[in-house]
Amino acid sequence: MHGCPCGYFGDQGRVCHCTPMQIQNYRGKISGPLLDRFDLHVEVPRLNYSELKDGDGNESSIVVRDRVMAARQRQWARLGPAKTNAEMTAKETKEFTKLTPSGESLLQKIFDSQHLSARSHDRILRVSRTIADLGGCSDILPEHLAEAIQYRALDKRLQV
Ligand SMILES: [Zn+2]
Q1: For the chain: N or C, fewer Cβ within 10 A?
Q2: CA 93–ligand 1 middle distance (angstroms)
Q3: How many CB atoms lie within 10 A of CB 136?
Q4: Long-range contacts of 72-80 (CB under 8 A, 24+ apart)
Q5: 89 by DSSP, 3-state: which?
Q6: Is 41 helix (H, G, I), strand (E, B) or coil?
Q7: Residue 41: beta bridge partners?
Q8: Ligand 1 mean position to 153 CA, how many Å?
Q9: Statement: the pTM of the whole predicted model exceeds 0.85
């Protein structure tokens, strides 16, 4: 989806003339309970010509695939064959996404200030677990949690 009716909200190169009310109405078309069902809400800025043409030195797919496979192996060892973090039950989420005390207080702060739903809370934990797995880390560190929170852009952006 776009960020606003004209599509230029947050765009570096174009000006958005939508009013906060128009933006709110536009975003309100997607309900909170529906947004809750997405793991990631990420803003993707428009690319300029050279970025589009040359890329920006991204890793090759082979390197990324190896990292994803290593993360999958960690998940399978924890959850059983072929089961991913996204498929964890509430009980497994509780058991396998324990936070450090500073992570715990960060999540509490975000939960209270953004009025997150229980579903969104659990998604943040599961995504944090995956980010830690991708980093080869057995503990979920505050930085993993912070990254997962950042992927919930629309939880907070709903209030313009
Ligand atoms: Zn606009």
Answers
A1: N
A2: 38
A3: 10
A4: 74/133, 74/136, 75/130, 75/133
A5: coil
A6: strand
A7: 152
A8: 17
A9: no
Would you say 48 and 54 are in contact if contact means Cβ atoms under 8 Å apart?
Answer: no
Kindly report, residue by residue over 7-63, the tens digit of the pLDDT: 998 888 899 999 999 998 998 888 878 888 889 988 888 888 888 787 666 788 899
The letter for the amino acid at 101 is P
Query: Phi and psi of 83, rounded to 5°?
Result: -95, 135
DSSP string computed for 2-39: -SSSSS-TT-SSS-----HHHHHHHHHTS-HHHHTT-S
Ligand 1 centroid distance, CA of 19 (Å): 8
Dihedral sign, Cα of residue 93, residue 97, residue 101, residue 105: negative
